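Re: weekly structure request thread

Next one in the queue (323 aa):
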Amino acid sequence: MSGPPRPPTLADVAAVAGVSLSTASLAFSGNKPVSEATRQRVLAAASSLGYAGPNPLASNLRRGRSGVVGIAVGQLSSAFRDPAALPMLDAVSEVLGAAGMGLLLMADDDAHPRLPLDAVIYDNCGRETWHAYDDLVARDVPLVVVEGPCWPGTTFVDIDHRRGSAALAAHLHDHGHRRVATMTLEASRPQREREAGLRQVFPDAHVIGACASDLAEAQSLASDYLATGPDVTAIVCQSDVQAAGVVLEARRRGLSVPGDLSVAGFDGVDTPWLDLSLTTVVQPLADKGRATAHAALARIAGEPVADVVLPVELRVGGSTGPA
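Done, posted below.
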């Protein structure tokens, strides 16, 4: 009993077209001159056999490339809930796609698959150590780290967290605030830098606690804190999502924002669940994504790549006012 028919191969195409296998291959690749008549004969033979062309992945692998860049984004389930992550991912995908590269989303756990990746982007998953780092370095896979640890052998892409937080703190100080609390992100380099900028102006700022950039988590943390009746006039958050959670909880408790309590954030993302604009530090999310992708492409090409630190900008909204 015969099995299913096998798919046509390039050798079949060459036989039907009456050319050598190497000539048929060149007709598809375009790497060397092949007469237009020969090329058309090869393509006609391929069409008659239903042959779509050489497997681009196999071709890439023969050249030592997979055509795929991996990006570690922490927990995949939460990567698409953070509004600050999406513009960055969109920009990375846009640049890599224009270069004919694919993008593979990866979790940052240690049990990573040993995939044939051309480069890996580590997008501030909050971890200071990553088991995959040693393996990737050993395999000479180019690494681009976004807002994370400055690991040896990597290209570093960051924003000026400290300067932005210091500018925000100065804005509050100019409006008479002296008793300030802060809600931080979980331990990471951005968390430390943003807190350091705040403490340039408010060295005694009280830390409410740390949580992810998650609306429900931030509101719960704010609820516990505001229930104590704290003697503060402003709360500075390390993300706009956190700040939105604080605003919602303050209002639930009958507090006016900014009349009774000023609230500020960081990132510059849209907060459609609020009816006021947040005072925030705007980071160039799309520019950060493009810089990251271009760094990855340059590393793949073996070109030297300098670290990148992008500027940020204070944007005063309706969530802060005089103390």
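The longest strand covers residues 68-72. The chain has three domains: 10-54, 68-159+285-312, 161-283.
Next request, please.
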